[in-house]
Design brief:
Blueprint lengths: L1 H18 L4 E17 L5 E20 L2 E12 L2 E13 L4 E12 L7 E12 L4 E10 L6 E10 L1
Antiparallel strand pairs: 1-2, 1-8, 2-3, 3-4, 4-5, 5-6, 6-7, 7-8
């Protein structure tokens, strides 16, 4: 539980410090999650499986300079019987006016694991703005540990 508390304090600290800037935009996002799990079954090899889930949460987009942004997010994710919090901290770059690429670490707290509830993953994301408020995004999450599967997220975001 102390790692989870440290994670929440760290996320809040980043958000509060960056919130002092005037160029912050807040929003909500959600969508579909596809999780790719590799299960090793005895001497039969790897049995890949795909689980479908959902996610939803909030984000803050802080403009820094020359098309660069910092975009922390806090998402609630549900996949089958598993539930967890996902907090990516993205470095966002505007490739064009409406097209963006985001990359960064993803901090995760799994509610359903008995040990090692805190995991770090890497995210690579792209986003396209339909309007100044509505965007579509896709991200791929890479798990570094055996129990942390990879995932593909497809969804919509709305700036408030």
């Amino acid at each position: 539980m102390s790692k989870f508390l440290t994670f929440i304090i760290f996320f809040g600290f980043i958000t509060c410090n960056l919130n002092a800037q005037k160029q912050a935009e807040f929003g909500v996002k959600g969508g579909l999650n596809l999780t790719f799990i590799k299960v090793v079954e005895g001497g039969f090899g790897t049995n890949p499986a795909t689980e479908v889930g959902y996610y939803g949460g909030v984000f803050v987009d802080f403009k820094i300079d020359n098309g660069f942004h910092i975009q922390p997010e806090l998402l609630y994710i549900g996949i089958s019987d598993f539930r967890f919090l996902n907090a990516p901290i993205y470095l966002k770059y505007d490739i064009e006016n409406n097209f963006h690429i985001l990359i960064g670490p993803s901090l995760n707290y799994f509610f359903d694991f008995f040990v090692n509830k805190f995991k770090v993953r890497a995210d690579l994301s792209i986003a396209y703005d339909f309007t100044s408020q509505l965007n579509i995004h896709m991200k791929y999450t890479i798990g570094f540990q055996e129990i942390t599967p990879n995932g593909l997220f497809l969804g919509l975001g709305y700036r408030l």
